[in-house]
Amino acid sequence: MSVHPERLPPDPFDPRRDPFSVVRPPPAHGDIHEFRVPRRRTRPWVHALLLLLTVGTTTAWGMLHWASFMSDFGAVPIPFDFPRWLANGFWYSGTVLAILGCHELGHYFACRYYGIDVSLPYFLPAPVMTGTLGAFIRIREPIRSKRVLFDIGVAGPIAGVLVALPALWLGVSLSRVVALPPAIEGYSLGEPLLFQAANWAIWGTAPEGYSLNLHPMAFAAWFGLLATALNLFPIGQLDGGHISYAVLGSRWSTRLTVASVAAAIALTFVSWSWIVWSALLVVMLLMFGPRHPRTEDEHMPLGRGRLAVAGFAVVMLVLCFTPAPMEVLELLP
């Protein structure tokens, strides 16, 4: 069965738009899809099952993060009490799923706003310390307009950061500065600029031999900031790739994609934690190529409003990025 997508709404950045008009002005040129879109059958149970599995994996890891937090780097023994551990596991699970979910729902509702056929979010459970590999949506039809592509690409990171910022502030407030034990093994997290700012504003500078013991909510916010930075890399089919194509066009966005993948590979010499991400980027580059799919209105300018939002996206990338996300910490007596 084929149906016409709904007529697209007016450009929100168009200065000619009259918000008090009863009859909305027509969409700007190039924002109308005049082709039939086959609506595909959805399987809500798949999305629900993946979400439930991700709730389980993130809560399980959240229990361990809470126990680690309460132990103050292993200095205080924490007896196993399953109901108590389970209840406190949601500090991490609820926060990280809210950040990732709002990121994907930002894309989802932007697609629905423009009448683009899109799936519900797929959450990815994983047996790693984050409990998840993130989430994604499937856009089931070509995006023919550069402005629509830009709006969909930037909506996710903005929505995710709007949730991550209050979670970061509350999580760091619930954390505490404690003395490091004589011997400690684990991981040291690289601190993005936003994280450093929240830590300094709340706790100031930690004295020698002391460190911030992260509350599980703060760790979830840290992971949310990192996920936002990774998605904003100006590469291919990532959110940043959509934004760079819409702003720079095909030639320069392709060059930026190749340069960004090379930079990610170079970062593996700074921190081992970039190895998996760099390998995934190389695979994506080999599968889809460095060129972003073209839109039909590539020659059309974005307008000042969207260029300002693109500048804000660059600021988000800088503030959420850290060159060494995770390092092995081993302090022996």
In percent terms, what proportion of residues is strand? 5-15%
Residue windows where pLDDT falls under 50 for at least 5 positions: 1-9, 15-37
The count of strands amounts to 8
Q: What structural category characterises the helix and strand content?
A: mainly alpha
Note the run of SSEs as H and E. EEHHEEHEEHEHHHHE
Shape: globular
Query: Share of helix among residues?
Result: 40-55%
Average pLDDT, to the nearest integer?
Answer: 86
Largest sheet: 2 strands, antiparallel
Secondary structure tally, helices: 8
Number of domains: 1
Query: Termini separation (Å)?
Result: 70 Å
Describe it.
The chain is built from 8 helices and 8 strands, in the order E-E-H-H-E-E-H-E-E-H-E-H-H-H-H-E. Strand 3 (122-125) and strand 4 form a beta hairpin. It has helices spanning 44-70, 82-113, 146-174, 193-203, 216-231, 239-267, 275-288, 304-320; strands at residues 2-3, 37-38, 122-125, 132-136, 176-179, 184-189, 210-213, 326-331. The model is unreliable at 1-9 and 15-37 (pLDDT under 50). The protein has one domain. It is mainly α. It is globular, with a radius of gyration of 22 Å. The protein has a two-stranded antiparallel sheet with strand order 1-2.
